[in-house]
Design brief:
The complex is a heterodimer of chains A (330) and B (150). Chain A contains 10 helices and 11 strands. Chain A is α/β, with parallel strands linked by helices and 330 residues long.
Chain lengths: 330, 150
């Protein structure tokens, strides 16, 4: 007996740029989705008045004024609306000037990038859409080519972090990265392990257990609280993931920290006990695609993806993608 | 992290990683007058290391005038991301990532901030093959710190 085909999801695609919309529509259709393509925010609003979409894929950077502002308003209203489609934004998201308004003005939790040549990464697009639509959100393998090498380390205390960071930097160097990209991979690992060991653990009432501790103080986790670090490569990209069994991270906290850091105000660095409040911002700046998968009360998985590059320019100027997925309670 | 004063306290050499383990306290207490800080051997900087460093710059700045030399790529990245990363310190020189168009070697070349401000941004030829070395970074992004530091 053959497996049932995946359910067809109605997807609305908004882009005035054919170089972006054509490959996006082709990819989404090939995955079995029923795609309707529109080119203006007005068309999108009109279509949504009489049709249902499970997902709106909105390309942000090709529209001219005033459609650009109307597109931003459409994304904001869809983000804030109840019962409407979920939103995935496609954007050039390069540098602080692009990234900051995505968080501050639009409170975006899901955006993917397309390149200057309008190329869309098919693996990342289809994985992201599938995660939004199905709620099956965990795992790094979906971002890597089949047969990719993935390794695993179990971390039960802060004392292991230094060794993990060194090991991952060596792994990145072996993979052919620019030396500064390998350093970035290591620092991202450092931040993600620190978050999982110090910030994730909560008590039965949901209160943080170690978040206020100095990061110089040693934390030892119970065996069943261990953080799983997974790292891998497929010849084209490196991946890094940390998974904790608490699921205490909240999307609104992620947005608050990112807005605070991008705001560059007096409070950019936390003075309070505990961490500097820069960890998520640091990871976002170091990797090309930062993913947070959250099953509230059960598990948080942070994933960082990096394109392997021998050029610092290619590494440091690549556009950013960012996605937060929350598994709804069943 | 390694940290040592030389030349009777006029020169501070710092190397290694800036992390939560980095203890700048003794250096902040010892810094007096004009202090030339050589950062050329600094490697990774994590978010806790950022806070430790910013605390050092603030504390040392009360009794010393810091001038930063050979700021490495990881340090320049932080100057571009963190608003008060160098406090009141003066930045004298930075390391600039380059790529040789002849042999493809990745290089890091020293550049004086005064030259960068004056638009003199050409990198010296490759030490290995003599080929032209091009900036291996987005120019406006990498040098964006120039508008925010002394």
């Amino acid at each position: 007996m053959s497996a049932a085909p995946p359910p067809v999801s109605p997807v609305l695609l908004l882009s005035p740029n054919e170089r972006v919309s054509r490959p996006a529509e082709r990819l989404l259709s090939s995955a079995g989705h029923a795609v309707t393509h529109v080119t203006t925010p007005l068309q999108a609003r009109t279509w949504l008045r009489v049709h249902r979409a499970d997902l709106a894929v909105v390309e942000l950077d090709s529209a001219a004024v005033p459609a650009a502002e109307e597109t931003v308003e459409l994304v904001r209203s869809l983000r804030e609306g109840r019962g409407g489609p979920r939103v995935l934004v496609l954007t050039l998201a390069r540098g602080e000037g692009h990234l900051r308004p995505l968080f501050e003005r639009m409170h975006l939790l899901n955006f993917l990038t397309f390149g200057d040549d309008a190329t869309i990464d098919p693996v990342e697009l289809l994985a992201t859409v599938s995660k939004i639509l199905t709620g099956d959100i965990f795992g790094v393998e979906r971002y890597l080519a089949p047969g990719a090498e993935v390794n695993e380390i179990s971390v039960t205390g802060s004392h292991q972090k230094k060794d993990v960071v060194e090991r991952l930097e060596a792994f990145a160097k072996e993979s052919g990265c620019h030396v500064r990209e390998a350093e970035a991979f290591a620092v991202a690992a450092d931040e993600m392990v620190t978050n999982a060991v110090y910030n994730a653990p909560v008590d039965r009432d949901g209160r943080p257990r170690y978040a206020a501790l100095s990061r110089r103080e040693r934390v030892t986790l119970e065996p069943h609280e261990a953080v799983t670090v997974r790292y891998g490569r497929d010849g084209r990209r490196l991946c890094l993931a940390t998974s904790d069994p608490f699921g205490s991270l909240r999307p609104e906290v992620v947005l608050d920290y990112l807005c605070k850091c991008f705001g560059r105000g007096e409070g950019q660095i936390d003075e309070k006990a505990g961490g500097a409040g820069l960890g998520l911002y640091t990871v976002l700046n170091l990797v090309h695609h930062f993913v947070l998968n959250i099953a509230p009360g059960e598990r948080t998985e942070a994933i960082g993806l990096l394109e392997v590059s021998q050029s610092y320019r290619r590494f440091s100027t690549r556009a950013k993608a960012f996605n937060v997925f929350v598994r709804e309670e069943r | 992290m390694q940290l040592s004063f030389e030349d009777g306290g006029r020169r501070l050499v710092i190397g290694g990683d800036f992390t939560e383990e980095s203890d700048f306290g003794p250096a902040a207490a010892q810094a007096r007058g004009e202090v030339e800080v050589d950062l050329g051997a600094v490697r990774r900087i994590n978010s806790s290391g950022v806070r430790e460093w910013v605390g050092f710059v603030r504390a040392a700045g009360k009794a010393a005038r810091l001038t930063l030399h050979r700021c490495p790529v990881s340090f320049v990245s932080q100057m571009n991301m963190i608003s008060n990363f160098v406090g009141g310190a003066r930045v004298h020189s930075v390391l600039v990532p380059g790529l040789c168009s002849g042999c493809g070697a990745a290089r890091e070349e020293l550049a004086l901030v005064a030259d960068l401000r004056a638009g003199r941004r050409d990198l010296p030829p490759c030490g290995a093959c003599g080929g032209a070395v091009e900036l291996d970074a987005d120019e406006s992004e990498y040098f964006s710190f120039l508008s925010r530091v002394d």
